[in-house]
Specification:
266 residues, alpha/beta, 8 strands
């Protein structure tokens, strides 16, 4: 399929043994409130389906409790790295979020990175996932997770380990985060799923193991679970937009399983 045909974040999944079509949508996990909008075609897709699946079930009443349970590592960060690395991480944490490493030493590095990235957004943030939850519940339908909270959080140390934390932070500091945020929004506004994926491919060249677990492993895991889910009922599936395109993206993986996956433009 030509790249120019992929300028959409919404894809229709049908064929094989499905009684009704399901829809696959790529979200942006963090976006400024004044830049956020939910396309009408996405609202229509939610209306046409009977359940929604996110990466994890953020609608669960136990979500916050489970997230807190699994956000800590087995060891502290400082116990796995040098004093020089600890000092560097401590300085970045104080600069970004005003918290010393000693206060969050047991928290998984990827969660700390997420906290720091949120501070780089100089605006109130909104969540696509929460809006999808709201629209699904408005129809009195259920929201589920492709992964459990435990499974999702188990990948965090594989994506960014304590030993890699200082190096990853240093590489992030080398980028202009404001420019990255602007680029993400421009790709999102154009629904350029290929462009969004290319931003992640930069990550692949700098840390291929992390990219493997962040995208490739989870994409395969989720696509292996989707046939049973979609066969039972028409499903709206929402994952981070970087999971959609590429040779190991969910679009191609679903097509390889025999499904017809086509772009939805309106």
């Amino acid at each position: 399929m030509a790249q120019k045909q992929q300028n959409t974040l919404l894809w229709k999944v049908e064929g094989k043994n499905l009684k009704e079509a399901s829809y696959l949508f790529g979200t942006v996990h963090m976006i400024c409130a004044d830049s956020f909008y939910m396309p009408e075609k996405v609202k229509k897709a939610i209306e046409k389906t009977n359940q929604s699946y996110l990466e994890i079930n953020m609608a669960s009443p136990d979500f916050a409790k489970e997230a807190q349970l699994y956000m800590k590592g087995d060891k502290t960060i400082s116990s796995q790295i040098s004093n020089t690395e600890s000092t560097y991480i401590d300085s970045i944490l104080k600069q970004k979020v005003g918290i010393p490493l000693t206060k969050v030493d047991s928290i998984k590095p990827l969660i700390l990175m997420s906290m720091m990235m949120q501070q780089d957004f100089k605006c109130p943030l909104v969540s696509f996932e929460q809006e999808i939850v709201n629209l699904t519940h408005k129809k009195n339908q259920q929201v589920y997770g492709l992964s459990s909270v435990q499974e999702q959080y188990s990948f965090m140390d594989k994506i960014v380990s304590a030993k890699d934390f200082a190096a990853v932070l240093a590489s992030m500091e080398a980028y202009n985060i404001q420019d990255m945020i602007k680029d993400v929004y421009e790709y999102y506004k154009k629904e350029d799923v290929v462009g969004l994926n290319k931003m992640m491919e930069v990550f692949n060249t700098t840390n291929p193991d992390a990219y493997h677990y962040l995208l490739t492993v989870r994409n395969n895991l989720w696509v292996d679970r989707l046939p049973e889910i979609m066969q039972k009922d028409a499903t709206f599936i929402a994952v981070g937009s970087a999971h959609l395109s590429g040779d190991t993206g969910m679009i191609k993986l679903l097509q390889a399983k025999g499904y017809k996956v086509t772009p939805v433009f309106k």
